[in-house]
Amino acid sequence: MIQEFKDFIAKGNVMDMAVGIIIGAAFTAIVTSLVGDIINPIIALFTGGIDFSGWFYVLGEGDFASIEAATEAGVPVFAVGKFIMAVINFLIIAFVVFMLVKMVNRIKEAAEKPDEVAPEVPTAPSELDVLLEIRDSLKASGRV
Description:
2 strands
């Protein structure tokens, strides 16, 4: 059983998956920063200062200035802004993954495509071929 586990771990697919998960986690941090630090301010600029990340509805009693204040008070909160941010993050990640897969497929197709073989160029007969032809002509005419 231990040998089977070692064989399973040693397979390339498992290692590729592990690398993909690690890179994906790092990439998620980048996309989260992109959305929170760049895209949200641009959206807020065009929507008159609306910041989606702070958009929420309190489902209980009270008036709170932020989601954090409401959750600290133990009041249930419907965090619409966080959900919108998650959707934007997902769309950006999905688009980038789509572009990466498209690029990898192009590279694979180029690697699998057989190299174009140059067409055979007819070459002139060699000196030996010419001499053999002359000899055969002379023999045929009876001169040799």
